[in-house]
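Archive entry. Fields below.
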Amino acid sequence: MAQNIIAANWKMNNDEYSSKKLTYEFLKLLNRKNNPKTLKVLCVPHPFLLSIDNMCTGTESVFVGAQNCSSFKQGSFTGEVSALMLKSLGIKYVIIGHSERRDFFSETNEELLNKVLRSVERNISPIFCCGEPLIFRNKNNHLEYVINQLKETVLKLNKESFQKVIIAYEPVWAIGSGKTASNKEIEEMHVAIRKTIKQKFGSSVSKNTSILYGGSVNAINAKEIFEIHDVDGGLIGGASLQAQEFIDIVNSIS
Ligand code: PEP
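PREDICTED_STRUCTURE:
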């Protein structure tokens, strides 16, 4: 069975003080009711990894993740953060392939594959984002587009490495737009992703791969989305910046 996961993507928001305050409020609310079967991953900006991780230590099933890592192992790459550096801080998760990285930083599938390789070789699980821009959905090419993103990246891993991967399907047009994909659209894509994983790695790997949905999930729509077949949780952007709303989303998964 795939693990249920709710991951927060804080993006480039808040300073250290407000990040700690948000974490404090989140943990306080979580400690009232914490389902240990649901993994909670807070993907925070690099400078706050350690302090937020320290705050989360001791709370069951809560982990801190990064939002990016370098495609290079080490060397003269000013400003980059390697998977080894993340590993040395005890980080176990990293978002790779978010559409904002693809769009604003021109990250290609080739570069993303290298980032995935760097993270899995350090035993860090990539939360690998895929999703189609609106133009491909309008042309009815959305399935082909997303499956191709996966074929050019995570599906090139060997079976052992792939088992560390978490997939997040995030239609680009739904991110931060207040527009979620319909239940039918989400199910169609998640089923197609799982089927493709099955074809490549077999049924046991495909059943155990967590496939998250992301794109304007909030406390109101979360429950319905998490009940969709083949949805194992969510990657939450804007709504993860409010402790109460994020907790309500976490509590929406059963
Ligand atoms: C995201 O950035 O990964 C995301 C899903 O954002 P939002 O929830 O704000 O749409």
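CURATOR_NOTE: The pocket of phosphoenolpyruvate is lined by residues 9, 98, 170, 175-176, 214-217, 235-239 (CB under 6 Å).
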